[in-house]
Amino acid sequence: MTLKICVAQLNYCVGDMPGNAQKIIDAARTAYAGGVRLLLTPELAICGYAAEDLFLRPSFIQTCDDAVNLVARELAGLKGLTVVVGTPTGGDNGKGLRTKSVEVQQRYNAARVLREGRILETYAKRELPNYQVFDERRYFTPGQGVCVFQAGEGEDAVNIGLLICEDAWFEEPARLAQAAGAELLAVINASPFHVGKGGEREVMMRSRVLATGLPLVYAHLVGGQDEIVFEGHSFALQADGALAGRAESFKENLFLTEVERTSTAIKLVANIEPGRSHEADLWDALVLGVRDYLGKNGFPGAILGLSGGIDSALVLAIAVDALGADKVRTVMMPSPYTADISWVDAREMAQRLKVRYDEISIVPEFEAFKASLAHEFKGLKEDTTEENIQARIRGVFLMALSNKFGSIVLTTGNKSEMATGYCTLYGDMAGGFAVIKDLAKTTVFKLARWRNENDPYGTGANPIPERVITRPPSAELRPDQLDADSLPPYEVLDAILERYMENDQSVEAIIAAGFERAVVERVARLIKINEYKRRQAPVGIRVTHRSFGKDWRYPITSKFRA
What we know:
Layout: E1 2-9, H1 17-33, E2 38-40, H2 58-74, E3 82-90, E4 96-98, E5 103-105, E6 107-115, E7 118-124, E8 148-151, E9 158-164, H3 171-179, E10 184-189, H4 197-212, E11 216-220, E12 222-225, E13 228-231, E14 235-237, E15 243-246, E16 253-261, E17 266-269, H5 278-297, E18 302-305, H6 310-323, E19 328-332, H7 340-353, E20 356-359, H8 363-373, H9 384-405, E21 408-411, H10 415-420, E22 433-434, H11 441-453, H12 466-470, H13 490-502, H14 507-512, H15 517-529, H16 531-534
Helix pairs in contact: 1-2, 5-6, 5-11, 6-11, 8-9, 13-15
């Protein structure tokens, strides 16, 4: 006696309700032909996650309702198939929720249970996360109910307890489903990726399984949405917490799990994809983030400034893996301070990855700027002003090419630079998408090494010249410039950044951990005074649990010292 369950681990697009509905319909038909009788879609699959303030528009909710009804109609003829569709819904009375301090339209983060053209159940998420990138209390009202439904027929029937994402991180929702007769927990999710998150989910769901004694199927989506990425990694756990199955990460997948009932227990049978390294996850997250940002927004390709340095080299390798060499263009823009080896290494990398490569000198424009400003700057020494002029000339060139040909500019700044302001507004920060915005400089080096040792997309082995990785980093905006002239060593800087910015440790706690007071206070000050720059930076891919994005909301004007 078996029930086949399929997780539609697919790449849904925010706001494309007809397209998302068709994905679900196609997946259901394919799965049904293979004997599946329960299809699980991820959280808010019908509209994509996260739709943000679109949830507040009544027409958006109505379009979601129409799409769910379309799915129900199109699958009505598949006898015995149950489909769980993640969708936002309006309140029962259509009125808003008003208290002395809150006024919101009544919305639920919900799931509809469909069978043979009918909506059998509607379950509303009980636990609404409001931390990191989550902001669900802005949009949704907590649900109060429990949903247990039957999937399969006759001796194959199984009572399924439905939970939505955050519900499964708390004891009560699963306990209530168990008390209502659930024999298996189905958890539908939209949980953004960060390094190590897949393992954290498995550990948490194992605790839920052990607390209830119920097996569990975890349904997750895949794809990039602005700054967040979803990696798939759907899985199934036995009632004793053992891993029963795991889907591929970062790929669409119809993940199948068979429920075998014996006289004493329920056993799950599925394929198990092996575990992966953090570097492999990071690479795939960045590639998927680039591919979906450009693809879902209709950009024909990407363009970036290739300097001969490590950051632009890594961004180029990511872009080629994401888009293919024919959709990536590079421009080397030498200044009076560009080292010969930078030219050589930039040309070599472009050749290795077979991308278009052009050289446009910024020397004439730089000299023209200095001449125009000579009267104003008379008697003053050259400083960061002249350095920034060079960066801004490059930004103007890249944006001009972007405007003329339609390709988006990929910026190449990393998290260490964004934290400390070691970047130029309207210069190297100018662009449409910040690929490595959430990678510390030390991680940039590690990932470059990993990519040279691996060729996951078949675009070319060892793409980054060794000298690009080993030479001391430099912005090359003045003679003999090195990053170390302006910043602490990256090993020290990144360790402080992790403690202070990602984990909210105080200055005194970091000093107590063995770091020099002067260095810690300097880094904390740089992070604070450069908030205004980060507010003007392009959106970038989040890969840590705390990025300079939706989960970093600090005032620009503040006297507080941490």
